[in-house]
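I'll show a sample.
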Amino acid sequence: MPYMKFDLHCHTKEGSPDGKVSVFEYARILKEKGFDGMLITDHDSYRAARKWQESKDKQIPGFCVLQGIEYDTVDHGHFIVIMPEGVSPKLFEARGMRLKSLIQITHFFGGIIGPSHPYGAKFLSIMRSKESKYKKYLSQFDFIEVFNTSEYISDNEKALKLAKSWDLPCTGGSDSHKTDTVGEAYSIIDAEIKTTNDLIEAVLNKKIIRVGGSQRYKRKHPILTNAFPLGFLFQFYNIFLTIIFTPVRVFRKVQISQYMRRHKPGKPLYQLKENKPEAASERRYG
């Protein structure tokens, strides 16, 4: 079976407020560059995935577009979440959730979760917080994004080291928001991927054998990414707007528990096959 080439971090104008390229254009460019598929990871939105599914006439034969999401937590930055086929909790399209609740709901519905650009900009990346805050969550992640083409070389290298130290699967993606950076990063998967169930299984069984791509920023030491004004803007965007558009009360612990009880699946939504995972040392990078 041939390897499949995916971009596992993609933003579109249908789903991300800062996205500049449509999901259809994104897929076309990736197809022309030799990719087999993409994972849509818009900020707190499944709109692009729904748009793709509804527009059968615009879909590209032989190209796989899967529904994912990049959730912007209010306390630990951004996280990529991949849910089983047909599962897209409405809570994921509402702002204001903390990482603890996001992990709880993701695993409850059979999904997987991992930090985006873990050593990226402050307020956007989990490893930029204090050790006492992030350490308790590392064992609960299912994978780590170790190559993000919009991050610095040193930050990607730290992410890879982190994944190896916790023996976690590695993923890579372009994190592209505009046309000229589409397809700058890739993940090579040693499995046939047709659905998110296939992708979940491939990630958990460490079937992503190589990640890499172009590096937008060659400098090794970021200067502005952790600047106070940028962090403050993120706090305003992701917390204050939460109060306006998503009442914080919906994310209280008792209400999350009630949500999960109401939506408890009658049978397992996804069952991981017992395949022997590859050793961490066999994964390649770059």
In short: The mean pLDDT is 81. The first helix runs from residue 23 to 32.
